[in-house]
Amino acid sequence: MKTVHVKRAFKYRFYPTDAQAAELSRTFGCVRKVYNLALAARTEAWTRQERVNYNQTSAMLTAWKKTEELAYLNDVSSVPLQQALRHLQAAFANFFGQRAAYPRFKSRKKSRKSAEYTTSAFRFRDGGLTLAKMAEPLDIAWSRELPEGASPSTVTVSQDAAGRWYVSLLCEDPSVQPYPATDTAVGIDAGLDHLLTLSTGEKVSNPRHERRDRARLAKAQRKLARKAEGDGANRARARRKVAKVYARIADRRRDHLHKLTTRLVRENQTIVIEDLAVRNMVKNGKLARAISDAAWSEFRSMLEYKARWYGREVIAIDRWFPSSKLCSACGSLREGMPLNVRVWTCDCGTTHDRDVNAAKNILAVGLTASVCGAGVRPQRRTPGGQSAMKQKPPRREP
18 catalytic, yes or no? Predict the structure, then answer.
């Protein structure tokens, strides 16, 4: 079996001293400032139809540090500042490759507070992590062990909106190896009444994490709304309470999705899903909250990277394929089917559970597309002895 070298981030919570918190807050501010300055310089050059690369922005950083106005950039480690320029270079590479929108400026209030350190800017020894410009190691809550003999290549420190501090260590994890190959495959239909319905007939309940904390969230938001904009400390305290409720919801949701995706990848060689346009779906005002809480995009992301780790395959079929209206027994296509119809009977006499039938069709079409090496396009009419799908050349991966 081929050896897989997987680099994996291990994230831990830590509790900085006042001096460490002040140093990290300064670093976050400097990282944001350098990123914005470099983005402004590259944007100005772009208007002149010129391109500025990483090396040029790195030279700009050296010049900025020598000015009186930006001399404070010398007070923090230079490595996170250089990493910010590399991240901006990656953002432009994605933009020019048509994989992302044009990079945006970082906001002091809304942008993620983080700084990335490479090996030259931290010391990891005897289970202690000490960052550049710091005299003491971080007080990390080691909730799980790092791989034996692990040596972090990068360390990312961040603070979330709820005020919690995290450190993420990127290490090579030799324990991640492909699972033994199996012949099992499953189709998955995502929904709201049930989070997932599998082609095996199993239905995974929707925990509705946001609904469980909705009353607590509304109370915290009302308190925040009553705080005036100029009421600094009180408003900040109220904002953190709202952020803590959101963090609690997100933590529970992420934990549930990790357990679910790990089980699906472990049990199945091939997993077929729909290529849902979640960004468009949340524009539906009545369902936006429920769709966001279901976190289908996060589910797919977890499923795909775990499948790469463990030698599994994830197939995404066309979002317009009529999986619910197509009879999985005879292949006939029903003209229309409102959302309130959960059970229906085909002309061939087969009675279908709407979601289970959809999952079976998703699996069948995904496996066919995989064998043929083609994508899946929607079927527009009932097949008179024709295939239940039409094929097109696969889309070029970005």
Answer: no
Residue in the block written with tokens 């061939």: 348
Distance in angstroms (rounded) separating the CA atoms of residues 199 and 40:
51
- Strand residues in 147-242 grouped as ranges (E): 154-159, 165-173, 185-190, 194-198, 203-205
| pTM of the predicted model as reported, rounded to 2 decimal places | 0.84
Torsion of CA 235, 240, 241, 245, to 10 degrees: 140
Instruction: State yes or no: is 318 an active-site residue.
Output: no
Q: What are phi and psi of 307, to 5 degrees?
A: -65, -40
CB 81 within 8 A of CB 30: yes
**Residues forming CATH 3.30.420 domain(s) in the chain:** 181-203+254-284+291-398
Q: Among 23, 116, 189, 210, which one carries the catalytic annotation?
A: 189
% of the chain at pLDDT higher than 90: 71
Which class in CATH covers the domain with range 181-203+254-284+291-398? Answer: alpha beta
Exposed e or buried b per residue across 150-163, where buried means at least 16 C-beta atoms within 10 angstroms of its C-beta: bebebbbbbbbbbe
Active site residue 189: yes
Q: Are 307 and 271 in contact (CB under 8 A)?
A: yes
At 256-297, the pLDDT tens digits run 999 999 999 999 999 999 998 888 898 888 889 999 999 999
CA dist list (Å): 226 to 121, 230, 234, 239, 247: 44, 12, 10, 11, 22
